[in-house]
Structures are given as C-alpha cells and as structure tokens.
Specification:
356 residues
Amino acid sequence: MEFVRIGLIGCGSISDAHLQAYASNPQVRLTAVCDLNEERARQTAEKYAIADVYGDYRELLASAEVDAVSICTWNNSHAAISIEALHVGKHVLCEKPLCKTVDEALAIEQAVRESGRVLQVGYVRRHASNIEVLKRFIDAGELGELYYAKASLIRRLGNPGGWFADEERSGGGPLIDIGVHVIDLCWYLMGRPKVASVTGNTYRKLGNRSNIENFSYYQAADFDPSVNTVEDMANALIRFENGASLAVDVSFSLHARKDSSQIAVFGDRGGAEIEPALSIVTERHNTILNIDPQLTTPGFDFIDSFKREIGHFVDLCQGKGENLCPVEDGVDMIRLLNAIYRSAAEGREIRLDGGE
C-alpha cells in the first residue's frame, strides 16, 4: 500500500506520542480517531486534522478508510479491541501491556495466527537509538554471555491516579505500568531466555500520597484521590532456564530522596549501563575500560523512540521487515508479570518451567 491509513483508539495521554509520530511519517494518513469521551476525540481530531471521529471503537473498526489501528485504551480493553481489529482485517499496534491475563494473551495470539495480520506490542524502549547501538555490541559478542541484569525505575511521588490506580482497569500498579518496560528491555537484550521461576513482592504502604503539598506530579485526566487499588511498589528476582537472572524494583510511591532510573546488563566479557546513559564496560590487555559511545542521545529519547516504533509498525503494515515486538513476546511478558503478582500474593516462588 502506498499509504497506511491509521485509526487511533483511546485519546489519553500516550495517544499524543503515537499521533505526533504518525503525523511526521510521510507513509501515513491519519483518518480516524475514537474515544469514549467523544468531545475529547473531537478535540484530538481537530488538533491533527483527522476527518472521522467515533465514540465506539467498533464503528471505527468497521470503516473501510482504516488499514491499521493504534490501541491506547485502558489495559482491560486491549484484548477485546485487538482481537476484533485483527478479525476484521486491521493491523494492530497495541500499547503495553498486551492485556491483563494469560488467557487474554493467548486469545490475542490465536487471533493473530487466524487473521494473518500484524500485531506489534508497544515496547517502545526496544526501538530507542541507544538500544540499537548496544544490540550491535551484544550481537557481535562484545559482552559475551549475558548472565545478570538489574533494572530499577523509582518514582517517589508518581501515582498518576485515575485508571492507572484502578486495578480492575489497569491490572496493577507500577509493575505492570512501568515495570513492564524495563523488564522487557533487559529480557530482550539477554536474548529472551525462557523463564524458570520468579519471586516477587508488592507493597501497599503509602497509597497515592495525594496529601502531599508543594510538589507537583503528573495526574491522569480522571484523577480521583479517593481511588487507589494498586501496589505502591514491587520487586522481583527472575530466574531463567539458562541460569541467568534479572533483579527488578519499581515504584509509584516511595520515601526515596529522588526519582531514579537505572538499567544494566552484565556478561562474561563486558557489561553495559543503559540508563541514565549508555556506557559499556570491558577489559583489554588486563586493563578495565569504560567506553562511552558518542551518541547524540545516549539515554532514552521518548519522542524519537516513538517515531522509530511507529516507523517500524508502518513498515510491517507495508510488508517490510520483521516484527521486533511480536505477539509471542507479549504473551510471555503477561505470563511473567502474572507470576510475579501471584508470587507476591502467595508469598512463595512461582515456577514457570513445569517444576511446580
């Protein structure tokens, strides 16, 4: 197809990142937008000069003017919308997480196979330019066998409230919202090994801390300080069948001095710090070397990464390239996240390799 005609479903905050990236792509025509709040959909349509506005996603999916959709809705609606979109012949870019439950994930995977359409999971950090650089080093064997990774994404005051804080709609708190990004990134760089077991903890000690004054933080459009049914923070140790392991901790709310983001992977020939900026550590001639790649953006560039993610999706819709974020990876991640939540609830290790 000469142009990919895009419909966007869900006009929340993340939708702007999608729409800006689509609008800057010469192979795209933005043709339709949908939101439960039709006034918000109309405002979005005016901003991006989109002709068709809907309040029901089914009507958008029925449009012959839409080839592919971005799904930017609540997590609990991802499965239903993805499956229906695939069955009516639309390609799908589904924001992370793929869905809430393993059963939903498997149903989406089946729909992908039956429809023959593209489904790309919204793991935007895989598309970052610094990750592309690091992946070249890893694929060339520069770091050797990656056997350990750690990821920490700490917000001291960062519960957005609204649907993010409603477990029914979101599926959980920081683990499934921001943790999915850093867990997936490490897992991807480590070669996507099969998970053997997880041990996880979740804590609900501080709530959304809506009592805090004199310090601003992002709030969802439907923020309600009286509603919060998700965890404040979570941590986990993930063991893989190849012997590698990943330690992770994430928070919406924590008595930390400052927000922080630290991601690193370690191999038997070298290691790499990914955030706050890409740096590679190795040794030559019995000497440790710290290598700082000279990059325009050594850290995670939010806007550019979305442009690259959207560009990849458009290419896939046009039959070009191989899916960097296939549905199978989305299924595995939901299985992993659910296991961490289960481990925390039951207070024990959960095995995913059939060892239970």
